Automatic annotation (TrEMBL):
GO terms for cellular component: autophagosome membrane; endoplasmic reticulum membrane; Golgi apparatus; late endosome membrane; mitochondrial membrane; phagophore assembly site membrane; recycling endosome membrane. The lineage of its organism: Eukaryota, Metazoa, Chordata, Craniata, Vertebrata. InterPro entries: Autophagy-rel_prot_9. Belongs to the ATG9 family. It comes from Oryzias melastigma. This is Autophagy-related protein 9.
Amino acid sequence: MAHFDTEYQRLEASYSDSPPGEENLLMHVAEGAKSQWHHIENLDLFFQRVYNLHQKNGFTCMLLGELFELVQLLFVVCFTVFLANCVDYDVLFANKFVNHTDSSKVTLPDALIPMDVCSKRIRDNGFVIFVLIISGVFWLHRLVKFLYNVCCYWEIRSFYKNALKMSMSELPYATWQEVQARIIEIQKEHQICIHKKELTELDIYHRILRFKNYMVAMVNKSLLPVRFRLPVLGEVVFFTRGLKYNFELIFFWGPGSLFENEWSLKSEYKRGGNRLELADRLASRILWIGIANLLLCPVILVWQILYAFFSYTEVIKREPGSLGARCWSLYGRCYLRHFNELDHELMSRLSKGYKASSKYMNCFLSPLLTVVAKNVAFFAGSLLAVLIALTIYDEDVLAVEHVLSSITLLGVCITICRSFIPDKHMVFCPEQLLRVILAHIHYMPDHWQGNAHRYETRDQFSQLFQYKAVFILEELLSPVVTPIILIFSLRRKSLEIIDFFRNFTVEVVGVGDTCSFAQMDIRQHGHPAWMSEGKTEASIYQQAEDGKTELSLMHFAITNPHWQPPQETTHFISQLKERVHREAAGAPSETHPLSLSESEPRSLVANLLAGPSTLASVHFGRDSSLINAAAGLSDGASALRSLSPVSSSLHLRGSLSMAQRASGFTAKAMSGSGTDARTVSSGSSAWEGQLTSMVLSEYASTEMSIHALYIHELHKQQSRGELSRHTWHRRESDESSDSIPDEVRSDHNPQSKTFPRSHTFPTVVSSPNATSASSSNSKGQEEEKSQSQRRHSGPATGIYILKTFHFYGFTANMQMKKLKIKESD
């Protein structure tokens, strides 16, 4: 497929993961030889359940979790009706006198209305009856779904036990990569998919994330979510769970959706001839779903308020400052998500950047607000101190009306005020903080760098990293705002949505219809400004924005090191890793010449790592474990603590000394069996395997952070003087292929054309040093290879671990290690 003109395309063998000659393979197995798992019809749903069961730590935990969700729903409805109709609040608040023959104290049963009176009040209230009927129908639906899921997940439990040979007790300690490796291995025996002889990591990711990849692509192309410009707040992005649910209902699985099943787009949406008719049909469907949301708005709004009240009241009482805490918004999670990135991978990455993001947002505390908060905290603290002193002197003070309430409110007020008072010992460096954030989240508009101190950058970052209170408020307003967005905003994008699904859907053999961006193909969706110049044939409409294709490709390759991409993709990955590794060595130019031209910095990685780096090697003997690597791993503990909150609680040196005794980490196990070192969790103890997998996963995360920083830094150097395009600058006219001239759409090198462009389009200038950079790259690779052969005898495979950082006030002295797995004769 050379380019996306107007028609849906079938992805041929050049993209297929099937071996040559097996593209249309259909496996036939004799009836007697078929296993229980032969030819699973809906592999998307099957792999999603396998993944969900792993993430929920086994069948029992999953069962209890869903059971308690049913109980919670029943409790919220029944308890709310009880509070509204069966409690005498006059007695509870002592506004009504109660006669007692044996005691003068008012007890809790005195405040309860008799059962017959309570039942009559419920029957006479039409709104309560309506709510109970709707809630009952919804609860019965959830109950049927729960029973169905129990049967389905029991089958998945059997699959883990019988096919994967994994018990539920060891599932919480196994990594997903280990489960995935076993699935790929049993494909040869059980033929789960009959259309391919062998499964790959990308096949499994495509099936689990088929619809989520479409959502990530639509966010990347600014098709979703809808943006508003309000008079006081400025540009606002509204993206809630309720709105996301409606998007998925319209596009993927609801009645009349664009997909006829989980893996196939409807045939009429694959042709461009009737696009206008399909757009009208989609607009009409969006209108009816918006009207349905409008009719159900009162019920959903009441439910949202009650659920938020029961969920957050206790948390706010215990930690009043929790509303001032921040969280990654739903829009932020979609914008920052790589193509083919699972939920746990995304949340792990964002969690590592949480601390630096919070520190960055705290740099913008208002000095005026700080002065007010200090004085309000002083006055509130004075009153609270007096009340506490009086209570200590005589506990009867608590019996005075509103004294206990005043103590509680004053404590809440002081806690809130403290959240606006910065730590006087903290030194803030916004630019360095933003660099640390970029190392973890991997995506950032170009104009943020160098402008980290500006409030415009802070406001745009707050769309990704919002207050918890704002998140709760948006969810509460979602039942009201969602129908407005569907009826008045999304309907106008119906033609662009139809064009998007037609132009960016490809059929992959053995997988079905997938988002073409999820193929992570540099040639089809690379961006010339993101290290893809000369390698991509994509037009502006086809290019993924913000380096999404390149960064997603590197993330997937590092996360799944045994994945075998196409030859062009392999060359891109190896070339990038070689450049990063060679520059990170930090040696003088006469010893390790760089491949960069004179217009580029001498060593981008050296600028990023701001400290000396050495290149060391660690050997693994045939029967040894991680004994020799332990010193290198423990040397990097300080940097891992700064990069991840998980590792900060681990005593790596002592724990790794235990993990060294695990017999599963021999060179034979890692290089001979084909099992990745990051996924091995065997040993005498599940804890040892989990610990070692965690540590090795940290190094993979660090490696990706360095590559992300390097790609952004190189992009920054290449795009100097060019006007960049990003989410905050792109116009709606950029989103449709109709806005791109035909001569540009059909040209493989669109930047060479001269045509009228909007001011948001980049002016790409070809680099005159591209040829020289390429030749020096190949020369540097040969020199590095010869030096490596002189230092180490025999074949070796390398795992690059980059571990030197200098970020916002700390220097982490991690050296760059190139772990060499060597087999002695």
